[in-house]
Amino acid sequence: MRPGNGDHSVEVDHVDNGLKNRRVDASVQTTHLVPYRLRFLPPTSCDVKLGPSEPSCALRISCCCRVLSQWLLSQIGLSLVVVVWALLGALAFFNTEGPRELEQSQKLSKIQKELSVELTEQLQQIEDRQEAWQLVIHRCFERHEKLFLEAVGAGFGEGGGGTIWTYPGCVLFAVSLLTTLGFGAPVPRTPLGRSATVLFAAVGIPLHFLLVLNVGHLGALRLQQLAQRDRHASQAPRVGKPTWLKCFPFVSIAFYYVLGVVIFGVLRNRPPVESLMFPLDFTAAGGVANVQGQTRVFYALYLEAAVTLAAIVVSLLQASASRGIVDVGLRMGLLTNT
């Protein structure tokens, strides 16, 4: 074994045995080594060494760059980066889409008021109230319909008559982009808003995936360590994984969904069917504009926790794939080791 701490040590004999076993039995796909992941907390010391001819200022710069990179690329540092990026993205969406939505709402209200006044004046000037009224009202309705369709095409009323692009709504939109779970999300209409969306997603989605995958590996590792301690603490000998670890992926997902039904359905006094389909309330077509701001923020946190839980479940399933599943995959031609 090569000496080192828990993040850097590698069991060479273990790797050799795993490779030899893979040559003998095609059903063995991986060794039992814990996959590498980002540190949860960065190291507090700098081990950069320079030659005798290099100045001391170069050592300070190298140490600062190393410590900064270690902090930014640790799980804690990356979490802070993603949170700040999400808040900045929400602020950008709020400043680009919010004024347009407010201006459009005010403009349409003004046009509706002007049409009402115009219709009233025309009806008062008509002498034959039996035949001409119908023609005037029909023309006014046609004009109102045309203006209304133009406003809808520009995004008015997308959220059910309320305001979508408030800051809490923008936070929800930013989190839905990062988690890629934003089905039915509102669409930015301004060129600056769409450009901000592309830039935000291009930077934020890879960082968020990197963070979630590492948190998933860490969570799965802690659960496996807990199961191992439970096995050692038990006096009765056990073979294989404990039952609670086998059931954890399925029970946790079901529990989390029921938790969402209770929080975003039952507690909001939604009907039973709408409670079961509570994610639709946070789409543009489902009326997200009529949802309170704090509820949108809580749902954004719910989405983030859902993605994290999914990453833990996937890591557990990858680490605990049984030989039976591998054999089935080999017989069906789904797996390969080349």
TrEMBL record:
The keyword Transport applies. SUPFAM superfamilies: Voltage-gated potassium channels. The chain crosses the membrane at residues 76-94, 164-185, 197-223, 244-267, 297-317. GO terms for molecular function: outward rectifier potassium channel activity; potassium ion leak channel activity. Keywords: Ion channel, Ion transport, Membrane, Transmembrane, Transmembrane helix, Transport. It is found in: Membrane. The keyword Transmembrane helix applies. It is a multi-pass membrane protein. Residues 164-216 form the Potassium channel domain. It comes from the Eukaryota. GO terms for cellular component: plasma membrane. InterPro entries: 2pore_dom_K_chnl, K_chnl_dom. One of its GO terms (biological process) is stabilization of membrane potential. This is Potassium channel domain-containing protein. It comes from Phaedon cochleariae.
